[in-house]
Amino acid sequence: MGVEERRQQLIGVALDLFSRRSPDEVSIDEIASAAGISRPLVYHYFPGKLSLYEAALKRASEDLAGRFAEPQEGPLGARLLRVMRRYFDFVEGHGPGFSALMRGGPAVGSSTTNALIDSVRQSAYEQILSHLGVSEAPARMELLVRSWISLAESTALIWLDGRRIPRAELELQLVHDFAALAAVSAAYDTEMAALLNRMVKDEPADGPFAELVGRLMSLAP
Amino acid sequence: MGVEERRQQLIGVALDLFSRRSPDEVSIDEIASAAGISRPLVYHYFPGKLSLYEAALKRASEDLAGRFAEPQEGPLGARLLRVMRRYFDFVEGHGPGFSALMRGGPAVGSSTTNALIDSVRQSAYEQILSHLGVSEAPARMELLVRSWISLAESTALIWLDGRRIPRAELELQLVHDFAALAAVSAAYDTEMAALLNRMVKDEPADGPFAELVGRLMSLAP
């Protein structure tokens, strides 16, 4: 194998192990053994476990950011729901590693890992703005989108901890949560109200937004 | 000064400095100088900056957790709004240190600091459940309360970054966000619907929940 090919293979093996257990618990010996090479050879390619972890996390970050890409066609609610499905696929495929990373901790919290997490959040933020047709977000829209992204993270983390609610329900719930938080924001601000009107005007009668409005209306006294 | 008195004084001085700037930027020399003692004497009480930082964070955590305590009297919306005001008082008083801590980073991410953050989140969680009259939370209620707590954290962090929205509006918005997310959850689950009905039945017509419902109704087509 060439140097780059071997590096890529090691990153893949390491990502698999770091995904399935907390990175703290994964040793270089284990990675070497899973890759079928010696421990010194691992160190030939990566100076230590942290640099291998960071390389694996970089690959995972690119994978996740790629899943946010969605054609700008059709109703917004259905687009967001498809992204949520791919997001939960990712979360399910990397459960223990995702939990350990997002909950923070000495082994996983470096400035590089934090920068990678922020870059994924930024990708999600920019994708959502582009679907909303906004290039420069006013303060309330930035707050809505960024705080909803953190809601999606915490929802995924809570789901991983026991999986007490079916993930398909949470994927849909997060779409509804976005609409509900947008509605609160719209209640404060005419610009946000205009955005919400634009969001819902092309929603089909059987789409997630219309479903939410119907459900909310039925709860009102 | 006695040993414990001196320790408490140092913790107070350090907390003040760690609150006003990112903890990375605060040196032991500065803490010694602000406390009016020598650098070696600081080390006599605390083995290093991390232990002093952790002691300061412990005091801040207890302060914050104490602000969640609210008499179980009167409408729920007004209670939550009072807690949000005290929460933003805390966030405003410890801005740069709060941001640095919650955004993570090498200097502030230790297992002790993470445990302190989790203990504050747990206090908030238990306080909210007790106000809702729930001792054992079903899965959807746990998700609602915990994910709303993370929404309150991210809202405060985004506010600190530029303060583009008046904090009084965000305090009220977070109360509305809670009601809106509860309404989404209620749309999925009869137990949550019963909770929401209990939440709103004692709300006054001029309280935050009623205001939100009115605003949402006016947005509906």
Structure, described:
The structure is a homodimer of 221-residue chains. The first copy, chain A, has 221 residues and is mainly α. The first copy, chain A, folds into two domains: 1-64, Tetracycline Repressor, domain 2, CATH 1.10.357; 68-219, Tetracycline Repressor, domain 2 (Orthogonal Bundle). Chain A has eleven helices and no strands. Chains A and B meet through helix 8, helix 9, helix 10 and helix 11 of A and helix 8, helix 9, helix 10 and helix 11 of B. Chains A, B: Keywords: DNA-binding, Transcription, Transcription regulation. Chains A, B: Residues 4-64 form the HTH tetR-type domain. Chains A, B: This is TetR family transcriptional regulator. Chains A, B: Residues 27-46 bind DNA.
The fold-level CATH name of the largest domain in chain A is: Tetracycline Repressor, domain 2
Helical region count of chain A? Answer: 11
Structural class of chain A: mainly alpha
Strand content of chain A: under 5%
Write out the CATH superfamily name of the largest domain in chain A. Answer: Tetracycline Repressor, domain 2
Number of strands of chain A: 0
Protein name (chains A, B): TetR family transcriptional regulator
Keywords (chains A, B): DNA-binding, Transcription, Transcription regulation
Pfam family, one (chains A, B): TetR_N
GO molecular function (chains A, B): DNA-binding transcription factor activity; transcription cis-regulatory region binding
